[in-house]
Amino acid sequence: MSKNVAIIFAGGSGRRMNTKSRPKQFLEFRGKPVIIYTLELFDNHPDIDGIVVSCLEDWIPYLEKMLRKFEITKVRAIVPGGATGQDSIRAGLEAAEGLYPSDSIVLIHDGVRPLITEETISDNIACVKESGSCITCVPAIETFIVSREDGCLDIPSRTNCRIARAPQSFRLGDILKAHRRAISEGKHDFIDCCSMMNYYGHKLHTVDGPSENIKITTPTDFFIFKAMVDVHENQQIFGF
């Protein structure tokens, strides 16, 4: 029976964050690591059946400790991450393959994107059920300029532009097939899964997600994350 599975990849070391003591996904705010904020969103969602985490190998024991501390109950496997994001995602997908049917829906998400919503997760599941893929996006709010090889510039209409974020969701068998094809062809530099699936000719479908769905890669991102957590808490307490 098909399941809905979150694949959380957290294999990066966070060089742009300039942290010396711990990777960015394990930075804490109010005593809770960033990755736990992310995992809670999927753990609490009623339609998510399981979670697989691809993690820096040396930090797996710490993550297991945090899962117990914060009562994250849907994690079914933790596997060592790879040298690149592509490798880490494939490791998570292959672990999921051993646990779930190939027609299961996988929602592939960065461990350092803790500001998505329950609605975004639901929209991804519904979109894959209907269309076979789902890329969470936000509308472009600035002008894109594309440099061509001849030195000229293309400026696409902003109304037609979206910025791809996460989750990026597919049927497990489809995305695993693409990953294995990429490895067989020696392609290790896909920036994300939607780029890979587009390269191999898959038709992609999109949903718009929240604008605050940022990836925490710099100190500025971390400050924005802390501010947004405060905003969300104030909304719950005061009904803003």
Describe this structure in words.
- The chain is α/β, with parallel strands linked by helices and 240 residues long.
- It contains 7 helices and 11 strands.
- It has a 7-stranded mixed beta sheet with strand order 5-4-1-6-10-7-11, with helices on both faces.
- α3 packs across α5.
Which descriptors would you attach to this protein?
240 residues; alpha/beta; seven-stranded mixed sheet; 7 helices; 36% helix
Brief overview:
The chain has 240 residues and is an alpha/beta fold. Helices cover 36% and strands 22% of the residues. It is globular, with a radius of gyration of 18 Å.
Total helical segments: 7
Q: Which sequence of strands runs across the widest sheet?
A: 5-4-1-6-10-7-11
Report the mean per-residue pLDDT as an integer: 90
Total strands: the figure is 11
Instruction: Note the main sheet.
Output: 7 strands, mixed
Distance between the termini: 41 Å
Query: What is the radius of gyration?
Result: 18 Å
Task: Give the overall shape.
Answer: globular
Tell me roughly what share of residues is in helical segments. 25-40%
Layout of helices and strands, plus pairs?
Elements (H helix, E strand, L loop, with lengths): L3 E7 L17 E2 L2 E2 H10 L6 E6 L4 H10 L5 E6 L4 H13 L7 E6 L7 H14 L1 E7 L6 E2 L5 E2 L7 E10 H13 L8 H7 L6 E3 L10 H20 L2
Parallel strand pairs: 1-4, 1-6, 4-5, 7-11
Antiparallel strand pairs: 2-3, 6-10, 7-10, 8-9
